[in-house]
Amino acid sequence: MTGQSTFFVELAETAAMLEKASRSSLVALDELGRGTATLDGAAIASAVLSHMTHTIGCRGLFATHYHHLSAEHARDPGVAIMHMACTVGGGDDDAVEATAPAKDDAMATVEDVTFLYKLTPGACPKSYGTNVARLAGLPAAVVARAATVAAQTQGDATRLSTEQQRALQDLAQLLRGQPEAGDLVAAQKRVVEAMAA
Fold first, then answer.
1. What are phi and psi of 191, to 5 degrees?
2. Is 129 in the same domain as 153?
3. Do 118 and 189 have their domain in common?
4. How do strand 59-63 and strand 82-88 relate by DSSP bridges?
5. CB atoms within 10 A of CB 52
6. Which of these, 46, 58, 73, lies nearest to 21 by C-alpha position?
7. In terms of Cα–Cα distance, which of 127, 120, 138 is closest to 64?
8. Are residues 87 and 128 in the same domain?
9. CB–CB of 46/69 below 8 Å?
10. 83: β partners
11. CA–CA–CA angle 161, 174, 159 (5° rounding)
12. Where would I find the DNA mismatch repair proteins mutS family domain in this sequence (predicted)?
């Protein structure tokens, strides 16, 4: 596959695996979709996971950092959601296994995370990418800035998601009844505005 992008090669290899896989196969995929834009990568990863479990019916190991896939497939009987455990805390006395999101102090996750390399049931409670950046030797100022940007971005994404959900819930509630045309148009406009914001 000379002259092909890394992403193209990744998808060609995935296509070959899916074509040859059967119910008795074990398919391992690591970070599928990482070579493209986040939304496209996440969509491809989700579709491939669904295809593996529902169309092929094979067993697989599917490692991803697309956290929303855990929620998307949480009720899927063909998917067991697991994560690699870690402890968050400054020492043995105050270290606790991370099973819920840490407080909003982004620097705590940079300084005080220890990876346990232990497979644990459930979704990973949050990302510890800035800690990995620190362990990899990025300058402290870069890691601190990354932690700040990550915290701000997460806050923006959460707020936007809440606004979108509220607009969609209002529209759904309206559609359950017999809405007036003007009310329906106004509700649809709020949904469009929330999605565009």
1. -65, -50
2. no
3. no
4. unpaired
5. 22
6. 58
7. 127
8. yes
9. yes
10. 120
11. 10
12. 1-151
The Cα–Cα gap between 130 and 151 comes to 11
Q: Which domain holds residue 168?
A: 139-197
pLDDT in tens, the chain (197 residues): 578 898 899 999 999 999 999 999 999 999 998 888 888 888 898 899 989 998 999 999 999 888 888 888 888 888 899 998 888 775 554 445 555 444 444 443 455 778 899 999 998 887 788 888 888 899 988 988 888 888 887 666 556 566 766 776 776 666 666 677 777 677 777 777 777 76
63-to-59, 79, 136 alpha-carbon distances in Å: 13, 12, 21
Query: How many domains does one find in the chain?
Result: 3
**For the packed helices 6-20 and 38-50, what is the interaxial angle rounded to 10 degrees?**
10
Q: Yes or no: say if 98 and 88 are a contact pair by the CB < 8 Å rule.
A: yes
13: helix, coil or strand?
helix
| Pick from 81, 59, 55: nearest CA to 69 | 81
Measured between its terminal Cα atoms, the distance across the chain in Å is: 41
Domain limit, last residue, from 65, 80, 95? 80
Q: Are 72 and 143 part of one and the same domain? A: no
Helix (H) or strand (E) holding 23: none
Residue type, 111: E
The pair of structure tokens assigned to 134 is: 């620190």
